[in-house]
Each structure stands twice: as C-alpha cells, then as structure tokens.
From TrEMBL:
Entry protein name: MglA protein
Domain of life: Bacteria
Cited InterPro entries: Gliding_Motility_GTPase, P-loop_NTPase
Gene3D superfamilies the record matches: P-loop containing nucleotide triphosphate hydrolases (3.40.50.300)
Signal peptide: none
Length: 193
C-alpha cells in the first residue's frame, strides 16, 4: 500500500524480492544499486558495492523514481529471507507491500525449492488477510546461464505465467534485472493511478 509522506509530499512504494536461498535476490539489489549510481559508474562493480550499505537480515535499497501522479516517488526495495527463522521480520517485510518480484531459480535441481518458497509466501500473505491476487507480481527466471537451467518457455508454462510478466536473468551480471524492475514498477503505478 503506497505511503504518502504528508510533510514532504513524497510517495513511497514497497517492492519485495522473494525467492529461495541463492536464487539471486541480493544480486538483483546489488545490480540495481550499481546501475542507478551513475556518478560512481567509472569504478568497477566490486568497488562500487563496497559503498553499498549492508543489512544483516535482509537487503534494502531506496531508489528515487521521478514523478508519479504529481508526486515525487520513491521505490523501497527489500529482499525477504528464504527461511522463516525470524517470522516477525518477514511479516513486517510483507505488510504494506505494493509489488513482488519472484526470483525463481531456473536450475532444474532447485525447482522444488521455488515451489516451497512460493507456498511459504502464500501462507504468509493469507495469515495477514491480504488478497494474494491483488498484489502485482513479476517472475524473474534467474541463473539462466546455468547448464541445467530450464528454458524460458518451459518455466513460463510450468508456472502458468503470462510472458509479459516473465524475464530471463543473470542477476549478478545485471541481465534481466532492470527489465524486471521496470515491469513491476509499471504494474504498481498502473494499479495506483
Ligand atoms: N552464475 C550465476 N550466478 C548468479 C546469478 N545470480 C546470482 N548469482 C550468484 O549466486 C550467489 C547467490 O546469489 P544471492 O544474490 O546472494 O542469492 P540470495 O540468497 O537469493 O540473495 C552469489 O554468489 C551470486 O553472485 C546468475 O544468474 N548466474
Ligand atoms: Mg541474499
């Protein structure tokens, strides 16, 4: 649910990156950090990432997004831990969510972990009495460079997804990251205005 800061007039949207352990959630946030800090772009990515603030339990990246409905918009990106060791962290991450990027691990040996993760998220959403179908979703098929990665067509069919919401990615190289981010922001804004 978008949050309007009446003092500044800014509008804040919350985007959550979910996915199984090592699916590439942090790699998405790191790539977006590097892409959006053009002032630092002459440095290589590893140098750039030394400047990125780190959290212990989840990743957080605020990004300015320009004008939405006449207000200065900011996108707040979070990653959700793939485990539920700290349930209150996950509850707080989910509360007020405006859109979700599901980072799916394309590697065939990790396929069942994706399913476990989405079932966990569905239960969490249900427990908060949020309508799952009301949340804009984007699906990112990461690790698409792995030798055992399932194909884009295969994954789209396997999860019964619309192609317009699906992106193949190699997140640590920035491939498919910005496209996924733009799609989720478009869906959020379309719903909002
Ligand atoms: N080969 C390859 N490695 C990736 C890809 N995405 C992430 N990684 C690497 O996989 C590891 C786990 O990624 P990370 O983003 O930490 O996963 P998280 O647990 O979902 O946050 C890291 O070493 C990343 O650099 C990808 O698409 N291809
Ligand atoms: Mg991570």
């Amino acid at each position: 649910m978008a949050f309007i800061n009446e003092a500044t007039g800014d509008i804040h949207f919350k985007i959550l990156y979910i996915g199984s352990q090592s699916s590439g959630k942090t790699a998405n946030i790191q790539s977006l950090y590097c892409e959006t800090h053009a002032d630092l772009s002459l440095k290589d990515h590893s140098t750039l990432l030394e400047n990125m603030p780190r959290n212990t339990f989840f990743d957080f990246l605020p990004l300015s997004f320009g004008d939405v409905a006449g207000r200065n918009a900011r996108m707040h990106l979070y990653t959700m831990p793939a485990h539920s060791l700290w349930p209150t962290v996950n509850i707080n991450l989910m509360l007020g969510v405006d859109g979700i990027v599901n980072v799916i691990d394309s590697r065939v040996r990790f396929l069942d972990k994706n399913e476990t993760q989405i079932q966990y998220v569905k239960k969490l959403i249900d427990s908060l009495q949020i309508d799952f179908n009301s949340i804009p979703f984007v699906y990112q098929f990461n690790h698409s460079d792995a030798p055992d990665a399932l194909t884009y067509t295969n994954l789209t069919k396997n999860f019964f997804l619309k192609e317009e919401d699906c992106f193949a990615a190699i997140a640590h190289q920035g491939i498919g990251v910005m496209q996924s981010f733009h799609r989720i922001t478009n869906k959020i804004i379309q719903k909002f205005v």
